[in-house]
Specification:
Blueprint (H helix, E strand, L loop, with lengths): L7 H26 L12 E3 L16 E2 L13 E9 L4 E3 L8 E4 L2 E9 L9 E3 L23 E8 L3 E6 L4 H4 L5 E7 L5 E9 L2 E4 L5 E4 L6 E8 L5 E6 L4 E5 L2 E2 L11 E3 L4 E7 L5 E5 L3 E5 L36 E14 L2 E8 L8 E5 L4 E8 L5 E5 L4 E6 L2 E2 L6 E2 L1 E4 L4 E7 L5 E6 L2 H5 L3 E6 L2 E2 L14
Parallel strand pairs: 1-24, 2-34, 3-6, 5-10, 11-14, 13-21, 22-25, 24-33
Antiparallel strand pairs: 3-4, 6-8, 7-9, 9-10, 11-12, 14-19, 15-18, 15-20, 16-17, 16-19, 20-21, 22-23, 25-31, 26-30, 26-32, 27-28, 27-29, 27-31, 32-33
The chain binds CU-O-CU linkage and copper (II) ion.
CU-O-CU linkage binds next to β7 and β32.
């Protein structure tokens, strides 16, 4: 066979050749995007040192501490023991027979032991203590800090509840499914008991509920009563709240009290997905009500709207300038490391599936950054959202101080978060101290987004992993 340039046969062969090259290239891309059945998260992606020194413990010296050994240091018998039994009833997943599960109330400083019992969840389960900066080994992330707890197995979470405020627990095994189906509950840590009402928001099969009830919940209250409403947003999207009948104060966010909160009227307030807000209301003669997204409501005493839904105010309270400044106890002017967490979106393959997937600093999961820190580092993180959708970003094990948004410095109360709504086009700068060794998730709390790859991790130098994604317990944290 002789190839004559420009002949039909030559063109045909060239066409076949280039088609083959494209197919091979696509095949390679597909193959290389496949996630192994089991892998060590700490070995995925690439190290990002945030402009700080490359720790010597990473260079192969040092013995390191395993995640599983990063347990509560306090010994002795617990002050509080709780058993939480989770059960799949076919429709919902309950905790001790209910969803939301029981509210766990602790006194600050309690040494707590919670025993998780998996009755019949075939996929296994865990409990994560959202917002409580517990030791890494009890953070409850399947495949990272423990193995999923299989049916008829149990796991003990032992930690000191040393942060006051409103928190919540939820599964971190197949969390996008198990949380949606009800595996969640609130945690309240107090210095002294106070009149409060829980408002745990959750959508069951797309029906918004407040403490499991659709529509309106009435809490008995007398005129003059001051009530702390603890709002917990367990859904995948933010929710707006607004108050009718009385002004309100936002006195705490994500478990941390705000400084100098002023009365708010005629403004709505946004509660981030995964986030909490404590709202204080003094009940007037005609009663007060809080509406959540226009779908559920909490009435304190009489209903000032007499059953109708007051329209949402057009303005929003902005925490960037709410309250008055005070010393946050963190100087971020000369950080040890500065990380970028740029969220984007592009066409690509995720575990062999074509789609428009989230990117972190331009990379698709699992080739995303592993943020490396050393204990004691002051860390600044710049979160930018260029992805076309809003993302509630959640860093485990730490609380971060909001420094600025879109270049504008925070000017109100110190604003500490564990869950931060980063809207389309926004750029936040936050800072925190690396004071809780371990390997920690840093992900979007719109849990389907996390399962679509919007999840990175932060690892302390010298910490080694103890668990694997997949494997015999089929660990799948998202
Ligand atoms: Cu509320 Cu990674 O979790
Ligand atoms: Cu998201």
């Amino acid at each position: 066979m002789r190839l004559v340039p420009g002949s039909d046969r030559c063109r045909l062969l060239l066409a076949i050749g280039s088609t083959l090259a494209v197919v091979l290239a696509l095949g390679w891309m597909w193959w290389s995007s496949l996630l192994p059945d089991t892998y060590d998260l700490a070995e995925m992606g690439y190290a990002d040192h945030g402009g700080g020194p490359v720790p010597s413990a990473m260079a192969g010296h040092g013995h390191g501490t395993a995640v599983a050994d990063l347990v509560e240091a306090r010994s002795g018998p617990p002050d509080r023991e709780v058993t939480l039994t989770v059960r799949d009833d076919g429709e919902r997943i309950t905790v001790n027979g209910a969803t939301p599960g029981p509210t766990l109330r602790f006194d600050r400083g309690d040494l707590v032991e919670v025993t998780l019992v998996n009755d019949n969840l075939a996929d296994g389960t865990t409990l994560h203590w959202h917002g409580l900066d517990v030791p890494n080994a009890v953070d409850g992330v399947a495949g990272l800090t423990q193995d999923a707890v299989m049916p008829r197995e149990s796991f003990v979470y032992r930690f000191v509840a040393d942060q006051t405020g409103t928190y919540w627990y939820h599964s971190h095994q197949l969390s996008h499914e198990q949380v949606r189906r009800g595996l969640l509950g609130a945690v309240v840590v107090e210095d002294a008991p106070e009149r409060d009402v829980l408002a745990v928001l959750h959508q069951y099969d797309a029906v918004p509920t407040l403490d499991g009830a659709a529509d309106t919940t009435v809490a008995p209250a007398e005129p003059g009563d001051t009530v702390r409403v603890r709002v917990v947003n367990t859904d995948n999207a933010l929710t707006a709240l607004w108050v009718t009948g009385a002004p309100y104060q936002v006195i705490a966010v994500d478990g941390t009290d705000l400084h100098g909160p002023t009365p708010v009227a005629a403004h709505a307030f946004v509660v981030t997905a995964g986030g909490r807000a404590d709202v204080r209301i003094t009940v007037p003669a005609g009663g007060a009500r809080i509406d959540f997204g226009g779908t559920t409501a909490l009435v304190l005493g009489d209903d000032p709207a007499r059953g109708s839904t007051p329209p949402q105010p057009t303005g929003f309270l902005d925490l960037l300038s709410y309250g008055t400044p005070s010393d946050p106890g963190l100087d971020a002017s000369d950080p040890d490391r500065t990380f970028d967490y740029r969220i984007g979106r592009r066409l690509g393959l995720l575990d062999g599936m074509p789609g428009r997937w989230w990117t972190i600093n331009g990379h698709l999961f699992p080739n995303v950054p592993m943020f490396i820190v050393e204990e004691g580092d002051v860390v600044v993180m710049r979160i930018e959202n260029h992805s076309g959708e809003s993302h509630p970003m959640h860093l485990h094990g730490h609380h971060a101080l909001v420094l600025s948004r879109d270049g504008k410095d925070a000017s109100g109360s110190p604003w500490w978060v564990d869950s931060l709504e980063v809207a389309v086009g926004e750029e936040y700068e936050i800072a925190f101290v690396a004071d809780n060794p371990g390997i920690w998730m840093d992900h979007c709390h719109n849990l389907p987004h996390a399962s679509e790859g919007l999840a990175a991790h932060m690892m302390y130098a010298g910490v080694t992993s103890s668990f694997r994604i997949g494997g015999h317990d089929d660990n799948h944290p998202e």
